[in-house]
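WARN  no MSA supplied for this record, continuing single-sequence
INFO  ligand: pyridoxal-5'-phosphate
INFO  echoing inputs
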Amino acid sequence: MIAPGPAAIPAFDAARVRRDFPILGQQVNGQPLVYLDNAATTQKPDSVIEAIDSYYRCDNANVHRGVHTLSDRATQRFEQARQSVADFIGSPATSQVIWTSGTTAAINLVAYSWGHSRLRSGDRILVSWLEHHSNIVPWQLVAAATGAEVVPVPVTDEGEIDLSALDTLLDERVKLVAVNHVSNALGTVNPVREIARRAHAAGALVLVDGAQSVAHWPVDVAALDCDFYTFSGHKLFGPTGIGVLWGREALLDAMPPFLGGGEMIEQVAFSASTFNSLPFKFEAGTPNIAGAIGLGAAVEYLAGIDRQGAAAHEAALLQRTLELAEQVQGLRRIGHPRHAAGIFSFLLEGMHPSDLGMLLDQQGIAVRTGHHCAQPLMARFGIPGTVRASYSIYNTQEDVSRLFEGIHKAQRLFA
Ligand code: PLP
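INFO  complex generated
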């Protein structure tokens, strides 16, 4: 008898995935929608929309401490979502998954709670030039209050963090290194595990802003060996207004609460109050219950698709984009990172980014234009902004072709 060969692995089918996202079936300005603004926010599959809908239709109640059935159901769905997110990022415990309203809120939580209690005059926080404003400004605010200093880590002309410059900056004054996993402006995939190794060797903690990475490939926070990891639900096929701070348990335990109020306390008296255990210590007030349930549904949706295949598919989209870009006269790609996620940032000679953005929109193609909340990076490249096309699991090679047809048409109209 001949032994059966390995089962054929079906190729990742973006067209099939696309059908799970109802918004993508529409026409915009008389053309089938090509949605290439995924770095700003992703679209939502039916399962996420249905999870939120069924929560409000069937189970809506406030969570925790409720004695009635609806409250119990809402709590179970809310905490099940936390478990799904913990599994999704490889968190050793659900108590390390703290709900926030998004990446921005998660970074601010660390800046205020950890930063205000730990930073002193003369301490340094390193942030890279690739950072989104939400991984710069919170550190500036805490630095102004504590006397610490925010020091930028240079990036190369390719748009990569300069690791030798990082080494030079890493001394005993540095208490934290804050970097994104993927640059939202250039698509650079940063070697965060290696950065964490170097930072830890110098005695500094590491916060990774994962807003642009979690949607593209499986992230394992334990394997990355970072101290904090943050991301937003809406960039991960979930709803807006929900996000996650993941942290090392010992660090989170030692940090003082950020916001005070209901749920985060153990005992309140006018003489003094004591605080709840993790994760509730950092979740004051009624949380975004529907948002958490929606995010839980989003990561469960991703658990059901071939993520390696999806990552390879997005890489193929970027590869084709780079090939077609070479054929466009006057197109300048900003940054040439060796390892890039599906983000393509560029300029067309003689055309303002927002003009191109509007001309593409007239053809049903949604891209983002501007500084992408990364003004220091734009200044580093001496440009006011870029046009950014960003891909996701449901984009197709047809979308890439449409983008370049749109660019050529815009050039003809502008000539
Ligand atoms: N960090 C990066 C790299 C981002 O791309 C974004 C949003 O674009 C943020 C942080 C902020 O995310 P949010 O607005 O969801 O808090």
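The domain at 51-303 is CATH 3.40.640.10 (Aspartate Aminotransferase; domain 2).
INFO  checksum written, moving to next record
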